[in-house]
Amino acid sequence: MITNGEIASLLGELAALTALAEGSNQSFRVRAYERAARTAEAMAEPLAAMAERDIAAIRGFGKGTARMIAELVETGSITRLERLREAFPPEFVELTRIPGVGPKTALALREHLRIEGVADLQEALARGAVREVPGLGVKSEENLSRAISRLGIGGKERRTPIADAVRVARGITAALGSVEGVTRAEAMGSLRRFRESVGDIDVLVVSDGDPGAVVDRFVSLPVVREVVAYGARTSAILSSAGIQVDVRVVRPDQLGAASVYFTGSKAHNVALRQRALDRGWSLNEYALTEQATGRVIASASEEDVYRALGLAWIPPELREDTGELELAERGALPDLAAEEDLRGDLHVHTDMSGDGREPLEAMLAGAAARRYEYVAITDHGEDLVINGVSRDELAAQRAAIDRLRAVHAGMTVLQGCELNIAPDGSIDYDAQFLSGLDWGVASVHSHFDLDRRRQTDRIATAMHDPAVNVIGHLTGRRIGRRPGIDLDVDAVLAAAEESGCAIEINCHLDRLDAPASLLRRARGSGVVFLISTDAHDTRELGNMCWGIRAARRGWVERDRIANTWPAERFLAWAAAKRS
Ligand SMILES: [Zn+2]
Ligand SMILES: [Zn+2]
Questions:
Q1: pLDDT at position 2 over 90
Q2: Ligand 2 mean position to 316 CA, how many Å?
Q3: Cα-to-centroid distance, 472 and ligand 1 (Å)
Q4: Relative to the alpha carbon of 353, which ligand is closest?
C-alpha cells in the first residue's frame, strides 16, 4: 500500500514540474499541489485506505488532487505527472536550482538556445549566446556563471541537496518498512552522516523474511524512473528526481556491521578496518571476524562492532575521520545534544507574518504539546516587504499573548520579533519600542551580495545591539539554490563571543544555517548557539530533529546550546543581553 510519505513526495514533484510547465512558481495549481503535499505528509490516517470522496472533503485537498491520489492508489502512477516527467527530465529541472533561473527563464533558455541542462547552459555561457535570449543580457551571463561555479553544480558528479534527498529517502523507507518480514528500513551513507548534499541514497533494509519481496517492492515504487541494477538482495534505481537509490537487504544478525559499512565515510571505514587488521581481524559489511578462524567477533549492533575495536560508539554525524576515532578510544567524544534535551523554540512565526500559516493560539498549543518550558513568538519586523508587521499589530499581539499565558501556565511565552538587518547593521523600529519586547532574532533578508568586509561589519553591529539575542539563519543560504553571504567567519565568531549574542542553528532542511563547518570552527570558544525551527506552521515545529543533527555534525556540545538550559538559566541569560 502506498504511504502518505510517498504520496506527499509525488505531489511535491507534481508542484515543481507544474511550475515549469506554467512558467511560474505562484500559479493557483502549483500552490494547490504544494498545499496537498504538506497535508498528505502531516496526515496520520493512510490516504490509500480512504475513498476519493472523503479525501476531497479534507481541508488541504481539492477535487483535482483527490482524483490524482485515487489514480495513484489504483494504478501506481499519475498520468499528469508522467507526462510532465517526459517534458521536463531531471537535467532540465536542475537548471531551476541556479539562482536567477526560475521556470520562466529555464523555458526561455530551452526555446531560444535548446538548453536542456546545466552542461548546455555552461557551454552557451562560454560562447556568449545567453545574452541573445529576450530578458537576459551580459549582466545575467556574469551572474549565471558565478552562481554555477559557487554552487558547484554542473560538474561530473551530480549532488542532491539534503532536503530533496530526505524527501525521496523517506518515501522509500516508509514503503519498504511495510513489506512483510522487514523490521527496519533506514537511509545510510552521507544522508545518515547528515551531509548537506548527497551523491546517492543508500537504504539498508533488515528483514528476516524473503529479501526478494523487498527488492520487488522497491523496483515497482512510483518514484522509480529506471531500474539500474536488479539482484536478490541488492538493487538500484534512478528516481524520478534523477537521484540514484541503492537498496540492500540484510539479516537481523548483520545489522551492526552492515550499517557501519554503508554509513561510511570511506575515510572513517578505512581507519576502522586498519584497527581490525591490527588485531588480526577483518571488517566487512557482514561482520567483524577473526581472520585465522573465521570466527565472528561482532556483527549484530554498531555498539558491538565499535566496542570490539576498543572504541565508544561514534554518532554517524561525526564519522569523517577528523579526530573522532582518537576521542572514541579515550572515551572523550563531545557530549552532543538529543532532541529530548531541547526545552524551547525561539524562532516561531504566526499568521500575523505574511508568510505564517497558523494563528498564535495554534502555534502556542503546538509548542505546549512538545512540553516546552519556554517559547518565543517572532513575527517579521516592519521593514520586511509584504510580510512585516506594524507596531500596532505587535501591540495587539502582546495583549493576546498576555491572555494566552494563563492557558499555558507551565510555559514562559516571550514576545519577540524577527528583525531585519539593514546593510549598515541597524534593525527595525527604535530602541524605545524594542525595549518593550522580550526577545529578538535578527536576520539578513536582503542585500545578499555585499562584499565580505561589509557583511561581516553588518552582522557584528547587529550582534552588539541590546535588542538582538540571536542572529537567525546567519548566512542566508538555501542549500543547493542560493549561496550564503560572504563572511569572515572568525571575525563573526569573535563578535558573537564578545557581544554575548547567540548564533542560530536554523532547522529548515534547505537552510541548516549556520553551516556545520562554522559550528565546528567555534569549538572551544564561548559562542552560544540556539536550535530553532523558524516554524511557519505547527508541523514545522517538528523540524527540531534536523537542527539537532546539524548541531551534532558541527560538534556542538549540549551545554553550548542555550535552549537545552533550564528555564531559569535561559531566561536570566536572555534578559541580561537586553539590559
Ligand atoms: Zn528569516
Ligand atoms: Zn523566520
A1: no
A2: 29
A3: 6
A4: 2
Domain ranges of the chain: 4-88, 91-151, 160-250, 258-330, 339-578
CA distance 414 to 346: 9
Q: Provide the pLDDT for residue 386.
A: 79
pLDDT of residue 154: 57
d(CA 143, CA 403): 50
Please give the single-letter amino acid code of residue 106.
A
Taking the centre of ligand 2 as the mean of its atom positions, its distance from the CA of residue 469, in whole angstroms, is 14
Q: How many CB atoms lie within 10 A of CB 18?
A: 23
Chain CA centroid to CA 120, Å? 29
Are 401 and 413 within 8 A, CB to CB? Answer: yes
Vertex 264 angle, CA 258 and 270, to 5° = 100
Looking at residue 240, its pLDDT comes to 83
Cβ-Cβ contacts under 8 Å for 178 (sequence gap 6 or more): 1, 3
The count of other CB atoms within 10 Å of the CB of residue 29 is: 17
Quote the cell numbers at residue 403.
Answer: 491572555
Predicted confidence at residue 412, as pLDDT, reads: 98
Q: Cα of 391 to ligand 2 centre, how many Å?
A: 18
- For residue 349, the CA-to-ligand 2 centroid distance in Å is 6
Per-residue confidence band for 148, with pLDDT thresholds at 50, 70 and 90: confident
Rounded distance from Cα 563 to ligand 2 centre (Å): 17
Q: What is the pLDDT of residues 308-330, one digit of tens each?
A: 999 999 999 999 999 999 999 99
Indicate if the pLDDT at residue 157 is higher than 70: no
Q: pTM value?
A: 0.86
Ligand 2 centre from 309 Cα, in Å?
Answer: 45
Give the ligand with the smallest distance to the CA of 533.
Answer: 2
- The pLDDT of 459-488, averaged and rounded, is 95
Distance 381 CA to ligand 2 centre (A): 10
CATH number, span 91-151: 1.10.150.20
Nearest ligand to residue 476 Cα: 1
CATH number (3.30.428.10, 3.30.1300.10, 1.10.10.10, 1.10.150.110) of 4-88 reads 1.10.150.110
**445 C-alpha vs ligand 1 centroid, how far in Å?**
6
